[in-house]
Design goal:
Shape: rod-shaped
Strand content: 15-25%
Largest sheet: 5 strands, mixed
Number of helices: 7
Number of domains: 2
CATH topology of the largest domain: Immunoglobulin-like
Helix content: 25-40%
Structural class: alpha+beta
Oligomer: single chain
Distance between the termini: 142 Å
Number of strands: 14
CATH class of the largest domain: Mainly Beta
Length: about 375
């Protein structure tokens, strides 16, 4: 008999009606303590239910809170569904109980959670002095109920709400700062040992040349001006994978064009020698899984193509050689008219040394 009395006594002292034959758990008036804690990126409002477990509301800086009941021992027999309702204390006579709904119960030390909507409804009931009560099946053949006490709730509830607002502002500020950092372009790259190449980086959704990019372009322009012959400057524009395919392609075109416009205006190169190509997000430098990867993919690659070392006219010579080859092929494959071939060969001379003589037919009347 003693264990039964010991279990039901806390709820009786909480001034709730306690039906006979129900194994009820709840804090007495003296035991009704609410705690508000902030840590690990969350605000927590909790109450210990003597001999049963701890009820806790948790918010991670948004109004999207959740409620969980963590037990000190296993889930009561039966599982199934938990009935959620609010009960008025004895000092509020005439106030009727209100049904809040049903939630599924799982076996374990944390049998159920309440989503944001239901959690806010439970908080609103506590604010009005009501006692949210959960019916959790049976234990040793008797129905089990767990009640939260509204006693002393208003001493901690305002600080919980303030914590949510403060943490939310901190998280938003941190997110905005991280977004600004992620949107910043990397420093453009120009190596003295490869003066005909450069990599320029851009801010998010921008084709504007950064101070770092202008510095690199200044060095590249000085290199270009020192070259007597330049075949072509290849300018390849790229984008990260944020945004649509068409938008990213257009953005990479704008970035390449911005480089071309700069070089035309600062090197004296003819526009025909500046070839722009746009690839959008098609060829990332690294996988764009995070902000750092996306920053490396917002880029333009430049390469100044010079004549082969020691022979600035090599492209022209290659073209002349190709023309000669084509002419030779035409000569070898020139048709011979049957029956009117070459003259007999002179003694000591091969047929291949004789010229091909074409006869002319008299025009018909």
């Amino acid at each position: 008999m003693l264990p039964r009395l010991f279990v039901t006594l806390p709820l009786m002292l909480a001034c709730l009606p306690c039906p006979a034959g129900v194994r009820a758990y709840g804090a007495s008036i003296d035991e009704s303590v609410w705690r508000m804690d902030k840590g690990a990126g969350a605000c927590r409002l909790s109450q210990r239910v003597p001999l049963y477990g701890t009820a806790q509301f948790v918010s991670r800086g948004s109004r999207d809170i959740e409620f969980a009941l963590r037990l000190e021992r296993g889930t009561p027999e039966g599982g199934g569904w938990a009935r959620v309702r609010t009960v008025a204390p004895l000092w509020q006579p005439g106030v009727l109980s209100r049904e809040l709904g049903l939630v599924p119960v799982q076996h374990g030390l944390q049998p159920f959670r309440l989503g944001a909507d239901m959690a806010w409804r439970v908080l609103a009931e506590l604010e009005q002095g009501m006692f949210p009560t959960f019916s959790l099946g049976e234990e040793r053949g008797e129905p089990v109920t767990v009640a939260l006490s509204a006693v002393n709730f208003l001493e901690r509830y305002p600080s919980f709400l303030a914590c949510i607002d403060t943490l939310g502002a901190e998280l938003r500020s941190a997110a905005e700062s991280a977004a600004r950092e992620a949107a910043k372009p990397l420093d453009s790259v120009y190596a003295e040992d490869a003066p005909n190449r450069a990599t320029l980086f851009f801010a998010t959704d921008s084709a504007e040349l950064t101070p770092s990019a202008l510095d690199v372009l200044g060095k590249l322009s000085a290199f270009i001006k020192q070259q007597p012959k330049i075949e072509v400057v290849i300018i390849d524009g790229h984008a990260d994978d944020r945004g649509g395919l068409k938008a990213n392609l257009k953005l990479s075109e704008r970035r390449a064009q911005a480089i071309k416009d700069y070089l035309v205006g600062n090197t004296g190169l003819e526009p025909i020698k500046l070839r722009t190509r746009a690839y959008g997000e098609k060829y990332p430098a690294v996988p764009s899984k995070d902000a750092a990867g996306q920053a490396r993919n917002r880029r333009v690659l430049l390469m100044v193509q010079l004549p082969a070392p020691g022979d600035e006219k090599e492209p022209i010579k290659q073209l002349e050689k190709a023309v000669e080859t084509m002419n030779a092929i035409e000569t070898v494959t020139k048709p011979v008219i049957l029956g009117e071939g070459p003259t007999p060969a002179e003694p000591g001379k091969g047929l291949e040394s004789q010229p091909v003589i074409e006869s002319k037919k008299e025009p018909k009347e």
